[in-house]
Amino acid sequence: MLGARRATLQVVLRPFALGLGGSALYATFDAFVPAQPRDEASRPAPPIPSLAMAAVTVAASAPLFGISILGMAGAVRGHGGLKWLSRNWEHIGWTAFFSSTAVLAVARPTPMVVAASPMADRHGATVAAAEMATRLCTVSAGASLVGVLAGERLGSYFGAALILPALVGSVWTAALLPDMPLASFAPAPALVIPFLLLASPPVFSRSLDLLTVGLWATCAALPALSEYFMPAGEDPANRPADLLGNDRRSAQLAFEQLMAGMALFGLHRYLLRRRPLCQY
């Protein structure tokens, strides 16, 4: 009886989840995509951070990288609690997620490190590659997390059908629309993930552990959210100087990377400790 109710609820929630994600993508596409391509030459050059602050940013990214490698190995081989990953789409989704966060741990600080180095003018291609990797892996991490969670909460067959189109479609869109800022991809997972967690019954134990993960993830997103809700036309680079000076961006990135590492640590710990409650 409980299984039949769960299956009925999954069927009911599927169109709501797809509609919520699709509506968020459609609305943000119209709101964020500029009518004319951005003129990169007219954009002010980012401030040059100190070498010490660039090193702090790298150090703050180390936990994120280490936990990502552990999670990727667990998703591939089924270590610990990740042994419950019994389906191909689960291995694909979690491997893509942890692989993306590992690349982000390296790619995001790279432009800061290059800008602080004495030979910054010789590494323009490195910076461009790091920025593209950041863009693609951010979208890939969000899409894979949504796909895996949808498969768990809305049915295994639904997850199997959704995970690859979500990954390939989102990454392809991010690559083909370079003028579309990353912020335009954020509302879909930011709305769909809480909806699935709150509206659908859990299939694994220790679901309350995800509250801690959500708090750390919110802390990581706070600097970006503060810029998102800035008055229109205001550039963060034009803010009055403070004690950090040119190191403001590096300090913000170090904070984001450290908080993201804490969120990933909580998620990895949850994955290792959870146990299945039912078939899905």
Helices and strands in order:
Elements: H1 2-32, H2 51-77, H3 88-107, H4 110-116, H5 124-154, H6 156-176, H7 187-199, H8 209-228, H9 248-273
Helix pairs in contact: 1-7, 2-3, 2-4, 2-9, 3-5, 3-6, 5-6, 5-7, 8-9
Helix/strand structural class: mainly alpha
* Quantity of strands, as a count: 0
Distance between the termini: 15 Å
Mean pLDDT: 75
Helix fraction by DSSP (H/I, runs of at least 4): over 70%
Radius of gyration over alpha carbons?
20 Å
Largest sheet properties: none
Number of helices: 9
**Spans of at least 5 consecutive residues with low confidence:** 22-42
What pattern of helices and strands is seen along the backbone?
A: HHHHHHHHH
β content, as a range? Answer: under 5%
Query: What shape does the CA trace take?
Result: globular
What descriptive keywords fit this protein?
globular, 280 residues, mainly alpha, 70% helix, single chain, 9 helices
Description:
With 280 residues, this protein is mostly helical. It is built from 9 helices and no strands. Helix 1 runs antiparallel to helix 7. The protein starts with a helix and ends in a 7-residue tail after the last helix. About 8% of the residues have low confidence.
What would you say about this model in short?
Helix content is 70%, strand content 0%. The chain has helices spanning 2-32, 51-77, 88-107, 110-116, 124-154, 156-176, 187-199, 209-228, 248-273.
